[in-house]
Design goal:
The complex is a heterodimer of chains A (463) and B (100).
Chain A: H1 2-23, H2 30-49, H3 58-76, H4 83-112, H5 119-146, H6 160-180, H7 185-203, H8 211-233, H9 236-259, H10 264-270, H11 294-302, E1 306-311, H12 313-318, H13 321-333, E2 337-342, H14 352-359, E3 367-369, H15 370-373, E4 382-386, H16 395-398, E5 417-422, E6 442-446, H17 449-462
Parallel strand pairs in A: 1-2, 1-4, 2-3, 4-5, 5-6
Chain B: H1 2-20, H2 28-38, H3 43-51, H4 56-86
Helix pairs in contact in B: 2-4, 3-4
């Protein structure tokens, strides 16, 4: 009887989760849908609490309270600019939970001794622990890089890929050994140690701008680890959720790597921040740069009838989204039309710019995807680029020798005039010269994005 | 039993792929935090590990897993809701307080 209630609660939860995810296809229904999903979670948890194996509720109660105390600030207090690292750390937590369940199961089988683990369960458990541990440390390093505790640039050493490959191989051999004979506890625990090290070494060489792919990929791993836990425990809801999560992460990482025109393996093993010397910056000659004052830029914006704003990571760093919205409203008040062009990999995680702008009260029907808006640049009076670089670099379209050649970009260079807000002339993440900044139609407004935008707001008001 | 579990896995992956491929890029960040919250479902495994009195080691591992999974569920659903609340349509300009 009890078991049926548990299973039923899982079924309800699974349906509500899928409905919740489906609601995310519509921004106006999404909130309601996700609240339903939260109710589904409650069902699943309550259904589990009546499980007949559970005899002692003290540790459970303590864990739930402590978890809620940690989760609340992670949900309510984290600023939207810090979302990428927030997601990374929670991927680490999620994988940690899977790993610990796996280790606890394994430990129980060998030291508390119930029935010996069947080969299949052991394989699922081993796979789960291997993938989970790798995600725990990998996501933690990603968190460190995004939070800038660790240097964001790629850290590489010679023979890195070979070393990682060998370690991966050894970890897999250990996994096979444990599956053949589960009583090889030392092989099991060395596999965990090796996986932890591998997670670190795999993410360390990945540069900041590649983070969207990595975070999405880790999301997928975290899901697969959860699904493997489900196989190991024979628990259907874990399998369902793990595979939903895995599918989502997988899909996002494909979309992200497409948006950068790079393959998975290139992102994971390429570490292309090495600044390929082939396209050495300007080949020694200094290219012309036209800098503009805030007053002149404001005049251009004030009298423009069509403006497209292109936000990039620089806007997030400067936390300038509110000033952007203020400026856009002023232009609209003067009769201009303002749209926002969002590149899929702008920022440090999928969809980051959209959330930042939504936070600043920019209505979401003014945010356009790359494909929707690229045709409109030729009719645009002013394209305002805020802290974006590689995603607007025309070399991706024109220069076959460029390392980013083939990457889909926003065709900002086709706008009638371009104003670029930038801190200085430093090259972007890819270390490549951006000809957009030297084009005759482009003027550069140097300085911190937030300060520049505030000046623009004042000047447009006065114009 | 195993084949049944494989069925569940493959079918759920299909459903996931179908549903999620229709989520617009606009909502990709909430999607990530939502799947994150949902993956906190590993709590159900952790609860059993923490509460079934097997050995002190298994219980403590389970306890830490409960903490990690719960914080993901609570934090994940809250942050998703907070984000989704921000997405608004362009309404016929209600009297917004003039910019300071």
């Amino acid at each position: 009887m009890r078991e049926h209630i548990t299973e039923l609660s899982y079924l309800v939860a699974a349906v509500l989760f899928i409905l919740g995810l489906r609601s995310l296809t519509r921004p106006d229904k999404a909130r309601q849908g996700m609240q339903l999903a939260a109710v589904g979670m409650l069902f699943a948890v309550c259904g589990t609490l009546i499980h007949h194996d559970i005899v002692d509720y003290r540790w459970i109660a303590g864990g739930l309270v402590l978890g809620a105390l940690i989760g609340y600030p992670l949900g309510m207090w984290v600023p939207t600019t810090a979302l990428p690292q927030r997601i990374a750390i929670s991927l680490s937590f999620g994988a940690l939970a899977s790993v610990l369940v796996g280790v606890s199961e394994y430990y129980h089988a060998f030291h508390g001794g119930r029935e010996p683990l069947e080969t299949f369960r052991m394989a699922a458990l081993g796979f789960e622990v291997l993938l989970g541990t790798l995600t725990v440390t990998g996501a933690f390093i990603a968190f460190g890089k995004l939070q800038e505790i660790l240097p964001g640039r790629p850290l590489t050493f010679p023979g890195q890929n070979v070393a990682n490959g060998v370690m991966m191989l050894v970890a897999l051999v250990l996994l096979v050994l444990v599956v053949i004979d589960p009583s090889r506890t030392s092989a099991f625990y060395s596999m965990i140690a090796l996986a932890a090290l591998l997670g670190v070494l795999m993410v360390i060489p990945i540069g900041g701008a590649d983070m969207p792919v990595v975070v999405a990929l880790l999301n997928s791993y975290c899901g697969l680890a959860a699904a493997a836990t489900g196989f190991a425990l024979g628990n259907s809801i874990l399998i369902i959720c793990g595979s939903l999560d895995g599918a989502s992460g997988f899909l996002l990482s494909i979309l992200m790597s497409k948006a950068m025109n790079r393959s998975f393996s290139n992102v994971l093993f390429g570490a292309f921040g090495g600044g390929s010397p082939a396209t050495a910056v300007g080949a020694g000659t200094t290219l012309p740069v036209r800098s503009i004052s805030a007053e002149d830029a404001a005049i251009q914006l004030a009298y423009a009838s069509r403006v497209i704003i292109v936000p990039g990571y620089g806007m997030a760093v400067a936390q300038a989204q509110h000033q952007v919205r203020e400026l856009a409203e002023l232009i609209e008040k003067r009769g201009g039309e303002v749209k926002y062009a969002i590149h899929p990999v702008a920022g440090r995680m999928p969809g980051h710019m959209n959330v930042l702008l939504a936070e600043a009260n920019v209505p979401y029907d003014k945010l356009y995807d790359m494909d929707e808006i690229n045709g409109e640049f030729p009719q645009t009076d002013v394209a305002l680029v805020i802290g974006a670089n590689d995603v607007v670099n025309p070399a991706a379209r024109e220069d076959k020798a460029s390392p980013i050649y083939g990457m889909p970009i926003l065709d900002v260079d086709r706008a009638k005039t371009v104003i670029v807000l930038k801190r200085g002339m430093a090259a972007g993440f890819a270390g490549i010269e951006n000809m957009l900044f030297h084009a005759p139609a482009t003027s550069m407004l140097f300085g911190d994005a937030k300060a520049s935008l505030s000046k623009l707001v004042t000047e447009v008001k006065a114009a | 039993m195993l084949i049944l579990e494989l069925y569940i896995f493959v079918l759920a992956a299909f459903v996931g792929y179908m549903v999620i491929s229709r989520v617009p890029p606009l909502l990709h960040t909430p999607l990530m935090s939502a799947t994150n919250a949902i993956s906190g479902i590993s709590l159900v495994g952790s609860l059993v590990a923490a509460g079934s009195h097997r050995s002190i080691v298994a219980t403590i591992l389970g306890f830490v897993a409960v903490v990690a999974a719960t914080s993901n569920i609570v934090g994940g659903f809250l942050i998703t809701d907070r984000m989704l609340k921000m997405f608004k349509r362009d309404e016929p300009k209600a009297k917004t307080p003039e910019s300071k």
